[in-house]
Specification:
By secondary structure, the protein is α+β, with helices and mostly antiparallel strands. Among the domains are: 96 residues, Ribosomal Protein L25, Chain P (Beta Barrel), CATH 2.40.240; 80 residues, RNA Polymerase Alpha Subunit, Chain A, domain 2, CATH 2.170.120. 13% of the residues lie in helices and 29% in strands. The strands form 3 sheets. The protein has a 6-stranded mixed barrel. The protein has a 4-stranded mixed β-sheet with strand order 10-7-9-12, with no helix packed on it. A hairpin with a 6-residue loop joins strand 5 and strand 6. The chain starts with a strand and ends with a helix.
């Protein structure tokens, strides 16, 4: 078995939200250790210690040896779950799963792709990883850091499924054999949409003028709706007088009619 990573932890007696908040204020993370043969154990971890551990893990499946301050025996475990605040990204809680050196256990192992695909290199294909993690069962001594897949012979249109993976000593794959893991697919064609100005349709209503003025009358004599200032169709009072209308136009402001001027001159005589 590979040498596991080490992590210092402390036992905590108090539980609940208030106790967890107090731990986070002093830069510690509430945690729990549980397993098949022992009752759940409440723990706490220093944030710098845990951050250093995650950098050492670096996306691999590794076992962690817990050094408890109040217990001489060490516990072998792996990271089951890490809860983080979605806004501040602070660590909220850590779940650790205890394992025994002589018993098999189930764990999710990351997929690691090696080589350059033939389809990507020569056929302009795109490599897609359908399953980033795979479930396996093994002994702690047989735990692989990752499931490596050589994609060099993969051509466009070909897929590597779980049932086609190379056997790993002491490891049993638990996912469905037909589940795709890595595929080489054709690139998505770029779609270019061109905008073509529509030609005016004969008989369609004219668009209103930019300055908001009323639209000109249509060919059939009916007024086209404008901004509401034009006279309605058929309204003889509001319509402008035609060229043959005998009624005189209204005098301009400050100008007296011709008849009124003659009456005034007669009165002076």
């Amino acid at each position: 078995m590979k040498t596991p990573l080490t992590l210092k932890v402390a036992t905590r007696a108090q539980t609940g939200r208030s106790a967890s908040r107090r731990l986070r204020k002093v830069n510690r993370i509430p945690a729990i250790l549980y397993g098949k043969h022992s009752a759940p154990e409440k723990l706490s971890i220093e944030v710098p210690e845990f951050t250093k551990l995650l950098k050492s893990v670096a996306g691999r499946s590794l076992l962690i040896e817990l050094n408890r301050e109040d217990k001489p025996e060490k516990a072998l475990s792996f990271l089951q779950e890490i809860q983080r605040d979605p806004i501040t990204d602070r660590y909220l809680h850590v779940d650790l799963h205890e394992v025994k050196p002589d018993e098999t256990f189930e764990i999710r192992v990351p997929v690691r792709v090696t080589g350059e695909s033939f389809g990507v290199k020569n056929q302009s294909g795109v490599l897609e990883i359908a399953s980033h993690m795979l479930r396996v069962r093994c002994l702690p001594s047989d735990l692989p850091e990752a499931i490596e897949i050589d994609v060099a012979p993969l051509k466009v249109g070909e897929t590597v499924k779980v049932g086609e993976l190379k056997p790993v000593k002491g490891v049993t794959f638990l996912d469905d054999k037909g589940q795709p893991v890595v595929a080489c697919v054709e690139p998505v064609a770029e779609v270019v949409v061109e905008t073509v100005a529509a030609a005016p349709v004969e008989g369609a209503e004219a668009a209103p003028a930019a300055d908001g003025a009323a639209a000109a009358p249509a060919a059939d004599g009916k007024a086209v709706p404008g901004d509401g200032k034009g006279a309605p169709a058929g309204d003889k009072k509001a319509a402008a007088p035609s060229a043959g209308d005998k009624k005189p136009a209204a005098p301009a402001a400050g100008v007296k009619p011709a008849g009124a001027a003659k009456a005034a001159a007669s009165a002076k005589k």
